[in-house]
Design brief:
alpha+beta; five-stranded mixed beta sheet; 7 helices
C-alpha cells in the first residue's frame, strides 16, 4: 500500500468516527421527556339549546411539556359522534404558531399532528381544539372522546426538537387522559317539575279527601244502624275498608289528614248514633289508627300500594 492510499484510508476512518461521535452526542443531548401528558377536556351541552346538528370544540392540553416542534396524538370518538371536516382549531386565545393536520384516519379514529411554526412550542397549555359533530337527534347521555397510544400503523410521538434523534414515542407519554361530551335536556326536567303539584295544593286535596272519607263513613254507619242488625265486628270491618280506600286514593298524606278526621269526628252524635252503643267510638278509633299508619308509610316511602 502506498503512502497516498494509507493517508486516504486514515482520513475516511477519522471522518466516520467523527460522525458516530456526533450522533452519540446528539442522542445524549435530547433526553426523553419526563411525566409528559396529553389531555382532552369534557364539556356539557343542553339538548334544548341545539338547533339540529351541532359542532362542539374540545380543548386539548399538554402537560410537563419539554417544548416540541411536532406532536402527534390519536383520538377515538364514540360511534355516535364524528369529526368535522375542519378537524381542529388553533385559532383560540393563547395559541399561536401551531398548525394542525390529519396524519391518518380510520372511521371514528383520527391521528392528528400539531406542528410548531419555526420556534418550538413551549409551556403547559392548550394546543388546539378538536371539532366534533353532534347529530341533532342524539339522545341524552355521555359520549367518550378517548386518547389512544396507537392505532393500526399509527403511533403517537413528540419531537422535542426538529431532529429525528429528538423524537420520542408512546412509552415516553406518562399520561393520556381522554374527555367526553355529556348531553343533557333541561326541557324534560322543566316538564316534570310543572306536572308536580305544589305542597299547598297537595295539602288542600288531602284535607278534602279526609273530610269526605269521614262524612261517607258517618252516613253509611247511620243508615245501616237504623235498618240492620249486623254484628259490631262486621260493621267495623266495613267501615275500616271504606276509610282505608279513601285515605289510600288521596294524592299524598300529611298530618292534616288526622287533624281533619279528628275535627270531623268530634261533632255531637245524634239520637240515632247514640242508640248504636259503642259502635261509633270503635269506628272513630279504627279510622284514626288507619290515618296515622298511612301518614307514617307515605312519609317514609312515598305513596305505595
Amino acid at each position: 500500500m502506498n503512502k497516498g492510499s494509507f493517508l486516504g484510508s486514515l482520513a475516511a476512518a477519522i471522518t466516520a468516527v467523527n460522525a458516530v461521535s456526533i450522533c452519540i452526542a446528539e442522542a445524549a443531548y435530547y433526553p426523553p421527556p419526563e411525566d409528559l401528558g396529553i389531555s382532552a377536556d369534557s364539556i356539557e351541552i343542553d339538548k334544548s339549546s341545539m338547533n339540529g346538528d351541532t359542532v362542539a370544540e374540545i380543548p386539548v392540553y399538554v402537560h410537563n411539556n419539554p417544548g416540541f416542534s411536532a406532536l402527534k396524538i390519536i383520538v377515538e370518538l364514540d360511534g355516535r359522534l364524528s369529526f368535522d371536516s375542519d378537524l381542529a382549531s388553533t385559532v383560540v386565545d393563547g395559541i399561536a404558531g401551531v398548525y394542525v393536520s390529519s396524519c391518518g384516519d380510520s372511521e371514528n379514529t383520527q391521528a392528528i399532528c400539531f406542528t410548531a411554526d419555526g420556534e418550538r412550542f413551549q409551556g403547559d397549555r392548550e394546543i388546539g381544539r378538536l371539532r366534533i359533530n353532534i347529530p341533532g337527534d342524539i339522545s341524552v347521555g355521555t359520549y367518550s372522546v378517548a386518547l389512544l397510544r396507537d392505532s393500526d400503523s399509527e403511533e403517537i410521538f413528540i419531537d422535542t426538537y426538529n431532529k429525528r434523534s429528538a423524537r420520542f414515542y408512546e412509552e415516553d407519554f406518562s399520561c393520556l387522559e381522554g374527555g367526553c361530551i355529556t348531553i343533557t335536556d333541561s326541557s324534560a326536567t322543566s316538564t316534570v317539575q310543572e306536572n308536580t303539584p305544589e305542597p299547598e295544593a297537595q295539602e288542600t286535596a288531602i284535607t278534602e279527601t279526609a273530610v269526605e272519607a269521614v262524612s261517607d263513613v258517618e252516613t253509611t254507619t247511620s243508615a245501616e244502624t237504623a235498618t240492620s242488625t249486623v254484628p259490631p265486628a262486621t260493621e267495623r270491618e266495613k267501615v275500616s275498608k271504606t276509610a282505608v280506600q279513601k285515605l289510600y286514593d288521596s294524592p299524598g298524606e300529611t298530618l292534616t289528614t288526622i287533624a281533619s278526621a279528628e275535627d270531623a269526628l268530634a261533632e255531637p252524635l245524634n239520637e240515632e248514633e247514640k242508640q248504636s252503643g259503642m259502635l261509633v267510638p270503635a269506628i272513630i278509633a279504627v279510622l284514626l289508627e288507619l290515618g296515622t299508619a298511612m301518614v307514617l308509610i307515605i312519609r317514609k316511602g312515598g305513596r305505595s300500594k
